[in-house]
Specification:
Elements (H helix, E strand, L loop, with lengths): L1 E5 L2 H11 L2 H7 L6 H10 L6 E8 L2 E9 L5 E8 L9 H15 L4 E4 L6 H9 L11
Parallel strand pairs: 4-5
Antiparallel strand pairs: 1-2, 2-3, 3-4
């Protein structure tokens, strides 16, 4: 059973492991970061109105994280991942998307967008099922 919950130090420690896994790092497009940078980010969360972060528990165990960032009056960027790979491909992404769309609606956010790696086929397929459109950025 999946549950969205408060993001706490337990998730912070798990996130260090998850986001430093080569495959997860690539799929989530996570840049390199230090423990100090991660801790500074975590401490900044309580004062931020542009960022909402949640832990994801499956069977009451930390399994991932999700949230909304770059929040404005009516727009936000969705992000999320399952860090425990044995839960991949089991439909939890759908549940996370449902929860985050509800969070956005409750906050009065009418436009949700996201960024996804070209190599993250599972996530891309999920987002297309939700009606997200592909926007290709061209460099000039």
């Amino acid at each position: 059973m999946l549950k969205i919950c408060d993001y706490n130090k337990e998730f912070l420690e798990c996130s260090w492991k998850w986001l430093n896994d080569k495959e997860i790092k690539e799929l989530t497009m996570t840049p390199d970061f230090t423990k100090q940078q991660q801790n500074e980010f975590y401490l900044s969360l309580e004062n931020r109105v542009d960022y909402k972060i949640f832990g994801v528990k499956i069977d009451n165990k930390p399994a991932g994280a999700c949230g909304l960032k770059n929040i404005t009056k009516n727009e936000a960027e969705y992000w999320g991942y399952i860090g425990e790979k044995h839960y991949w491909g089991k439909g939890y992404g759908v549940q996370i998307m449902d929860e985050m769309i509800n969070v956005a609606k409750k906050a009065g956010i009418s436009n949700v967008y996201l960024k996804v790696s070209k190599t993250n086929v599972r996530a891309t397929n999920l987002y297309l099922k939700y009606g997200f459109l592909i926007n290709i950025e061209l460099s000039t």
